[in-house]
Protein backbone atom coordinates (compact mmCIF):
# COMPACT_ATOMS: atom_id res chain seq x y z
CA UNK A 1 0.00 0.00 0.00
CA UNK A 2 2.78 2.40 0.93
CA UNK A 3 4.60 1.57 -2.30
CA UNK A 4 1.51 2.52 -4.31
CA UNK A 5 1.21 5.81 -2.46
CA UNK A 6 4.90 6.56 -3.03
CA UNK A 7 4.53 5.81 -6.75
CA UNK A 8 1.52 8.10 -7.09
CA UNK A 9 3.34 10.83 -5.16
CA UNK A 10 6.33 10.64 -7.52
CA UNK A 11 4.03 10.85 -10.54
CA UNK A 12 2.33 13.90 -9.06
CA UNK A 13 5.70 15.60 -8.52
CA UNK A 14 6.76 14.83 -12.10
CA UNK A 15 3.55 16.36 -13.47
CA UNK A 16 4.06 19.41 -11.27
CA UNK A 17 7.65 19.93 -12.45
CA UNK A 18 6.67 19.55 -16.11
CA UNK A 19 3.82 22.01 -15.76
CA UNK A 20 6.10 24.45 -13.95
CA UNK A 21 8.58 24.42 -16.82
CA UNK A 22 5.82 25.09 -19.36
CA UNK A 23 4.46 27.94 -17.27
CA UNK A 24 7.88 29.56 -17.04
CA UNK A 25 8.34 29.44 -20.79
CA UNK A 26 4.94 31.00 -21.47
CA UNK A 27 5.13 33.84 -18.95
CA UNK A 28 6.09 37.26 -20.21
CA UNK A 29 7.95 37.90 -16.98
CA UNK A 30 10.46 35.23 -16.04
CA UNK A 31 10.90 34.24 -12.40
CA UNK A 32 13.81 32.35 -10.95
CA UNK A 33 12.79 28.77 -10.13
CA UNK A 34 13.19 28.28 -6.41
CA UNK A 35 16.19 26.41 -5.11
CA UNK A 36 15.97 23.41 -2.79
CA UNK A 37 15.88 25.49 0.37
CA UNK A 38 13.56 28.27 -0.87
CA UNK A 39 9.78 28.83 -0.77
CA UNK A 40 8.85 26.04 1.65
CA UNK A 41 5.79 26.36 3.87
CA UNK A 42 4.26 24.65 6.90
CA UNK A 43 0.51 24.69 7.66
CA UNK A 44 -1.79 23.63 10.50
CA UNK A 45 -5.55 23.72 10.38
CA UNK A 46 -8.76 22.47 11.95
CA UNK A 47 -12.41 22.38 10.96
CA UNK A 48 -15.44 20.19 10.43
CA UNK A 49 -16.02 17.13 8.24
CA UNK A 50 -18.89 14.86 7.20
CA UNK A 51 -18.64 11.34 5.78
CA UNK A 52 -20.95 11.11 2.75
CA UNK A 53 -21.69 7.49 1.89
CA UNK A 54 -24.58 5.11 1.33
CA UNK A 55 -25.76 5.43 4.94
CA UNK A 56 -26.48 9.14 5.24
CA UNK A 57 -29.51 9.07 7.54
CA UNK A 58 -29.49 11.17 10.66
CA UNK A 59 -29.20 14.82 11.52
CA UNK A 60 -26.39 16.69 9.76
CA UNK A 61 -25.08 18.22 12.98
CA UNK A 62 -24.95 14.79 14.62
CA UNK A 63 -22.80 13.52 11.75
CA UNK A 64 -20.49 16.57 11.73
CA UNK A 65 -17.11 15.71 13.23
CA UNK A 66 -13.86 17.63 13.86
CA UNK A 67 -10.89 17.31 11.54
CA UNK A 68 -7.22 18.20 12.11
CA UNK A 69 -4.70 18.89 9.33
CA UNK A 70 -0.93 19.15 9.13
CA UNK A 71 0.84 20.11 5.87
CA UNK A 72 4.28 20.81 4.47
CA UNK A 73 4.99 21.87 0.91
CA UNK A 74 7.02 23.93 -1.52
CA UNK A 75 6.25 26.41 -4.29
CA UNK A 76 8.33 25.61 -7.36
CA UNK A 77 7.18 28.67 -9.31
CA UNK A 78 4.74 31.45 -8.43
CA UNK A 79 1.94 29.33 -9.94
CA UNK A 80 2.93 25.73 -9.24
CA UNK A 81 3.58 23.96 -5.96
CA UNK A 82 3.44 20.57 -4.26
CA UNK A 83 2.25 19.61 -0.80
CA UNK A 84 2.06 16.63 1.55
CA UNK A 85 -0.90 16.78 3.97
CA UNK A 86 -1.98 14.56 6.83
CA UNK A 87 -5.65 14.49 7.94
CA UNK A 88 -7.19 12.93 11.06
CA UNK A 89 -10.86 12.65 12.12
CA UNK A 90 -11.91 10.82 15.32
CA UNK A 91 -15.25 8.96 15.48
CA UNK A 92 -16.73 9.49 12.04
CA UNK A 93 -20.51 8.82 12.37
CA UNK A 94 -22.95 7.13 9.99
CA UNK A 95 -26.67 6.54 10.61
CA UNK A 96 -28.76 4.02 8.71
CA UNK A 97 -32.34 2.83 8.55
CA UNK A 98 -31.22 -0.36 6.81
CA UNK A 99 -30.50 -3.22 9.19
CA UNK A 100 -27.86 -5.05 7.25
CA UNK A 101 -24.32 -6.11 7.98
CA UNK A 102 -22.17 -4.75 9.53
CA UNK A 103 -24.98 -3.38 11.80
CA UNK A 104 -26.36 -5.60 14.47
CA UNK A 105 -30.10 -5.85 14.95
CA UNK A 106 -31.35 -2.64 16.52
CA UNK A 107 -28.18 -0.62 15.87
CA UNK A 108 -28.57 2.64 13.98
CA UNK A 109 -25.15 4.25 14.54
CA UNK A 110 -21.69 3.35 13.30
CA UNK A 111 -18.49 5.08 14.46
CA UNK A 112 -14.97 4.79 13.06
CA UNK A 113 -11.72 6.76 13.05
CA UNK A 114 -10.33 8.11 9.79
CA UNK A 115 -6.74 9.01 8.92
CA UNK A 116 -5.39 10.00 5.52
CA UNK A 117 -2.22 11.26 3.84
CA UNK A 118 -2.31 12.83 0.40
CA UNK A 119 0.21 14.51 -1.90
CA UNK A 120 -1.15 17.46 -3.83
CA UNK A 121 -0.30 19.28 -7.02
CA UNK A 122 -1.28 22.92 -6.41
CA UNK A 123 -2.05 25.56 -9.03
CA UNK A 124 -2.18 29.20 -7.92
CA UNK A 125 -4.82 30.51 -10.31
CA UNK A 126 -4.36 34.09 -9.15
CA UNK A 127 -0.67 34.07 -10.18
CA UNK A 128 -1.27 31.98 -13.29
CA UNK A 129 -3.96 34.33 -14.63
CA UNK A 130 -3.15 37.69 -13.08
CA UNK A 131 0.62 37.41 -12.79
CA UNK A 132 2.74 37.09 -9.69
CA UNK A 133 2.34 39.80 -7.05
CA UNK A 134 4.26 39.48 -3.85
CA UNK A 135 1.79 41.58 -1.83
CA UNK A 136 -1.50 40.17 -3.24
CA UNK A 137 -3.98 39.92 -0.33
CA UNK A 138 -6.16 37.07 -1.61
CA UNK A 139 -5.31 34.08 -3.80
CA UNK A 140 -7.31 31.03 -4.85
CA UNK A 141 -5.44 27.73 -5.15
CA UNK A 142 -7.11 24.53 -6.41
CA UNK A 143 -5.29 21.24 -5.85
CA UNK A 144 -5.58 17.51 -6.45
CA UNK A 145 -3.49 14.41 -5.91
CA UNK A 146 -3.31 10.77 -4.78
CA UNK A 147 -4.22 9.87 -1.22
CA UNK A 148 -3.86 7.01 1.23
CA UNK A 149 -6.90 6.48 3.48
CA UNK A 150 -7.11 4.39 6.66
CA UNK A 151 -10.32 3.53 8.59
CA UNK A 152 -10.29 1.85 11.99
CA UNK A 153 -13.60 0.37 13.22
CA UNK A 154 -13.64 -0.89 16.80
CA UNK A 155 -14.85 -4.46 16.17
CA UNK A 156 -14.18 -4.69 12.43
CA UNK A 157 -11.05 -5.16 10.28
CA UNK A 158 -9.17 -1.99 9.38
CA UNK A 159 -9.12 -0.81 5.79
CA UNK A 160 -6.34 0.88 3.80
CA UNK A 161 -7.22 2.29 0.43
CA UNK A 162 -5.60 4.36 -2.31
CA UNK A 163 -7.90 7.26 -3.07
CA UNK A 164 -7.97 10.70 -4.69
CA UNK A 165 -8.17 14.05 -2.91
CA UNK A 166 -8.98 17.48 -4.27
CA UNK A 167 -10.06 20.87 -3.06
CA UNK A 168 -9.59 24.63 -3.00
CA UNK A 169 -7.42 26.78 -0.74
CA UNK A 170 -8.45 30.39 -0.16
CA UNK A 171 -5.25 32.11 0.98
CA UNK A 172 -5.20 35.48 2.75
CA UNK A 173 -1.85 37.21 3.15
CA UNK A 174 -1.22 38.48 6.67
CA UNK A 175 2.49 39.26 6.34
CA UNK A 176 5.53 38.26 4.33
CA UNK A 177 5.84 35.15 6.50
CA UNK A 178 2.29 34.23 7.60
CA UNK A 179 -0.94 33.50 5.67
CA UNK A 180 -4.45 32.56 6.80
CA UNK A 181 -6.18 29.71 4.93
CA UNK A 182 -9.77 28.67 4.36
CA UNK A 183 -9.69 25.21 2.77
CA UNK A 184 -12.45 23.05 1.29
CA UNK A 185 -11.59 19.43 0.54
CA UNK A 186 -13.22 16.21 -0.69
CA UNK A 187 -11.68 12.74 -0.73
CA UNK A 188 -13.06 10.08 -3.08
CA UNK A 189 -12.70 6.56 -1.66
CA UNK A 190 -14.23 3.13 -2.27
CA UNK A 191 -17.57 2.40 -0.59
CA UNK A 192 -16.22 -0.65 1.25
CA UNK A 193 -14.21 1.60 3.55
CA UNK A 194 -17.18 1.92 5.96
CA UNK A 195 -17.88 -1.86 5.90
CA UNK A 196 -21.24 -1.27 4.29
CA UNK A 197 -22.92 -3.95 2.18
CA UNK A 198 -25.10 -1.39 0.46
CA UNK A 199 -24.45 -1.40 -3.25
CA UNK A 200 -22.54 1.85 -3.53
CA UNK A 201 -19.11 2.24 -5.05
CA UNK A 202 -17.82 5.63 -3.81
CA UNK A 203 -17.83 7.54 -0.51
CA UNK A 204 -16.78 11.15 0.04
CA UNK A 205 -15.39 12.53 3.29
CA UNK A 206 -15.80 16.30 2.78
CA UNK A 207 -14.44 18.99 5.05
CA UNK A 208 -14.03 22.73 5.56
CA UNK A 209 -11.14 23.99 7.69
CA UNK A 210 -9.30 27.15 8.67
CA UNK A 211 -5.61 27.37 9.39
CA UNK A 212 -2.33 29.23 9.38
CA UNK A 213 0.56 28.87 6.92
CA UNK A 214 4.11 29.87 7.80
CA UNK A 215 6.63 30.42 5.00
CA UNK A 216 10.03 28.80 5.51
CA UNK A 217 13.44 29.08 3.87
CA UNK A 218 15.83 31.93 3.17
CA UNK A 219 13.82 33.17 0.18
CA UNK A 220 10.08 33.36 0.76
CA UNK A 221 9.21 35.09 -2.51
CA UNK A 222 10.20 34.78 -6.15
CA UNK A 223 12.81 36.97 -7.80
CA UNK A 224 12.28 38.42 -11.26
CA UNK A 225 14.89 37.34 -13.80
CA UNK A 226 14.97 39.80 -16.72
CA UNK A 227 15.08 38.20 -20.12
CA UNK A 228 18.50 38.70 -21.75
CA UNK A 229 18.69 40.96 -24.78
CA UNK A 230 19.68 38.69 -27.65
CA UNK A 231 19.55 41.46 -30.28
CA UNK A 232 23.36 41.97 -30.55
CA UNK A 233 23.90 38.21 -30.76
CA UNK A 234 21.19 37.82 -33.39
CA UNK A 235 22.74 40.63 -35.45
CA UNK A 236 26.15 39.01 -35.17
CA UNK A 237 24.73 35.63 -36.19
CA UNK A 238 22.99 37.26 -39.17
CA UNK A 239 26.26 38.95 -40.18
CA UNK A 240 28.15 35.66 -39.97
CA UNK A 241 25.46 33.92 -42.00
CA UNK A 242 25.75 36.62 -44.69
CA UNK A 243 29.54 36.23 -44.70
CA UNK A 244 29.16 32.49 -44.99
CA UNK A 245 26.79 32.88 -47.94
CA UNK A 246 29.25 35.23 -49.65
CA UNK A 247 32.16 32.84 -49.07
CA UNK A 248 30.15 29.93 -50.40
CA UNK A 249 29.51 31.92 -53.59
CA UNK A 250 33.22 32.74 -53.96
CA UNK A 251 34.12 29.12 -53.28
CA UNK A 252 31.79 27.94 -56.04
CA UNK A 253 33.33 30.47 -58.42
CA UNK A 254 36.86 29.29 -57.60
CA UNK A 255 35.80 25.66 -58.02
CA UNK A 256 34.40 26.52 -61.45
CA UNK A 257 37.62 28.27 -62.45
CA UNK A 258 39.67 25.30 -61.23
CA UNK A 259 37.46 22.91 -63.17
CA UNK A 260 37.87 25.02 -66.32
CA UNK A 261 41.65 25.04 -65.87
CA UNK A 262 41.72 21.27 -65.43
CA UNK A 263 39.70 20.83 -68.62
CA UNK A 264 42.09 22.93 -70.72
CA UNK A 265 44.61 21.03 -72.90
CA UNK A 266 48.05 20.63 -71.39
CA UNK A 267 50.62 23.26 -72.40
CA UNK A 268 53.85 21.81 -73.72
CA UNK A 269 56.81 23.07 -71.76
CA UNK A 270 59.60 24.69 -73.77
CA UNK A 271 63.04 24.06 -72.31
CA UNK A 272 65.72 26.48 -73.41
CA UNK A 273 69.19 25.02 -73.35
CA UNK A 274 71.84 27.31 -71.94
CA UNK A 275 74.44 28.39 -74.46
CA UNK A 276 77.64 29.91 -73.24
CA UNK A 277 78.21 33.12 -75.15
CA UNK A 278 80.24 34.87 -72.47
CA UNK A 279 83.50 36.72 -73.15
CA UNK A 280 86.86 35.50 -71.84
CA UNK A 281 87.83 36.50 -68.31
CA UNK A 282 90.79 38.95 -68.28
CA UNK A 283 92.68 39.34 -64.98
CA UNK A 284 95.46 41.95 -64.59
CA UNK A 285 98.47 41.75 -62.23
CA UNK A 286 100.81 44.31 -60.75
CA UNK A 287 104.47 44.71 -61.79
CA UNK A 288 106.42 41.55 -60.87
CA UNK A 289 103.26 40.21 -59.03
CA UNK A 290 101.62 36.81 -59.44
CA UNK A 291 98.76 37.33 -56.97
CA UNK A 292 95.50 39.10 -57.81
CA UNK A 293 94.19 42.21 -56.14
CA UNK A 294 90.74 42.15 -54.42
CA UNK A 295 89.17 43.88 -57.41
CA UNK A 296 90.46 41.24 -59.81
CA UNK A 297 89.37 38.46 -57.42
CA UNK A 298 85.86 39.91 -57.59
CA UNK A 299 85.95 39.77 -61.38
CA UNK A 300 87.10 36.15 -61.20
CA UNK A 301 84.26 35.19 -58.83
CA UNK A 302 81.68 36.75 -61.13
CA UNK A 303 83.09 34.75 -64.06
CA UNK A 304 83.01 31.53 -62.04
CA UNK A 305 79.36 31.96 -60.99
CA UNK A 306 77.93 33.18 -64.28
CA UNK A 307 80.04 31.22 -66.77
CA UNK A 308 82.14 28.36 -65.45
CA UNK A 309 79.46 26.79 -63.23
CA UNK A 310 76.78 27.16 -65.88
CA UNK A 311 78.88 25.23 -68.41
CA UNK A 312 80.16 22.30 -66.31
CA UNK A 313 81.24 20.30 -69.38
CA UNK A 314 83.19 23.02 -71.14
CA UNK A 315 87.00 23.12 -70.98
CA UNK A 316 89.12 26.26 -70.74
CA UNK A 317 92.69 27.46 -71.29
CA UNK A 318 94.32 29.57 -68.61
CA UNK A 319 96.63 31.80 -70.65
CA UNK A 320 99.39 33.55 -68.59
CA UNK A 321 101.73 36.31 -69.77
CA UNK A 322 104.26 38.99 -68.69
CA UNK A 323 105.23 42.25 -70.38
CA UNK A 324 108.47 42.17 -72.40
CA UNK A 325 109.58 45.64 -71.39
CA UNK A 326 110.59 44.50 -67.90
CA UNK A 327 112.64 41.50 -66.89
CA UNK A 328 114.42 38.87 -68.92
CA UNK A 329 112.66 36.31 -71.07
CA UNK A 330 113.48 33.52 -68.60
CA UNK A 331 112.18 35.52 -65.63
CA UNK A 332 109.00 36.46 -67.47
CA UNK A 333 108.37 32.81 -68.39
CA UNK A 334 108.48 31.77 -64.73
CA UNK A 335 106.33 34.77 -63.70
CA UNK A 336 103.62 33.98 -66.28
CA UNK A 337 103.58 30.34 -65.13
CA UNK A 338 103.06 31.41 -61.49
CA UNK A 339 100.25 33.75 -62.50
CA UNK A 340 98.40 31.00 -64.37
CA UNK A 341 98.92 28.46 -61.55
CA UNK A 342 97.66 30.99 -58.96
CA UNK A 343 94.39 31.40 -60.86
CA UNK A 344 94.02 27.63 -61.35
CA UNK A 345 94.55 27.02 -57.63
CA UNK A 346 91.70 29.43 -56.77
CA UNK A 347 89.35 27.79 -59.27
CA UNK A 348 90.00 24.30 -57.92
CA UNK A 349 90.47 24.84 -54.18
CA UNK A 350 88.13 27.76 -53.54
CA UNK A 351 85.33 27.16 -56.03
CA UNK A 352 85.55 23.37 -56.30
CA UNK A 353 85.91 23.17 -60.08
CA UNK A 354 87.46 20.09 -61.66
CA UNK A 355 91.16 20.51 -62.46
CA UNK A 356 90.92 18.56 -65.70
CA UNK A 357 88.67 21.23 -67.17
CA UNK A 358 91.60 23.66 -67.36
CA UNK A 359 94.89 23.72 -69.28
CA UNK A 360 97.69 26.14 -68.37
CA UNK A 361 99.49 27.94 -71.16
CA UNK A 362 102.30 30.22 -69.93
CA UNK A 363 103.82 32.33 -72.77
CA UNK A 364 106.08 34.59 -70.75
CA UNK A 365 106.83 37.79 -72.70
CA UNK A 366 107.00 36.10 -76.07
CA UNK A 367 103.38 36.83 -76.99
CA UNK A 368 102.24 40.27 -75.90
CA UNK A 369 98.70 40.84 -77.20
CA UNK A 370 98.36 44.44 -76.12
CA UNK A 371 100.34 47.57 -77.06
CA UNK A 372 100.62 48.91 -73.53
CA UNK A 373 103.06 47.03 -71.33
CA UNK A 374 100.90 47.00 -68.19
CA UNK A 375 98.05 45.29 -70.05
CA UNK A 376 100.32 42.34 -70.88
CA UNK A 377 100.77 41.51 -67.18
CA UNK A 378 97.69 39.33 -67.50
CA UNK A 379 95.93 35.95 -67.23
CA UNK A 380 93.12 35.23 -69.67
CA UNK A 381 90.64 32.36 -69.18
CA UNK A 382 89.20 31.43 -72.56
From TrEMBL:
Which residues belong to any copy of the OmpA-like domain? Answer: 272-382
Which Gene3D superfamilies has this protein been placed in? OmpA-like domain
The superkingdom of the source organism is Bacteria
InterPro entries assigned: OmpA-like (IPR006665), OmpA-like_sf (IPR036737)
PROSITE patterns per UniProt: OMPA_2 (PS51123)
Entry keyword set? Coiled coil, Membrane, Signal
Coiled-coil segments on the chain, per record: 237-264
- Quote a single Gene Ontology cellular component term: membrane
Quote any Pfam family the record assigns: OmpA
Which interval of the chain is the signal sequence? 1-20
Instruction: Please state what the protein is called.
Output: Major outer membrane protein OmpA
Organism expressing this protein natively: Mucinivorans hirudinis
Amino acid sequence: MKKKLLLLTCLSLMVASSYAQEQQQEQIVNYRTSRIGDNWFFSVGAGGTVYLGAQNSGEFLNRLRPVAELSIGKWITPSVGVRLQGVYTPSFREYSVIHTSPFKEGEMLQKFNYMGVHSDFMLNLSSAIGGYKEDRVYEIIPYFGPSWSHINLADRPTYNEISVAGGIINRFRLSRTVDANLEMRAIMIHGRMDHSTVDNRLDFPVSVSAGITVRLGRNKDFKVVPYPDYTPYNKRIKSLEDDLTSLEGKNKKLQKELEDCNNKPAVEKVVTKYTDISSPCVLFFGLNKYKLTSRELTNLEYFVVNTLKKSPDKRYIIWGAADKETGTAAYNQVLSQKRAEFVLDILVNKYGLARDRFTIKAVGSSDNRFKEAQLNRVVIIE
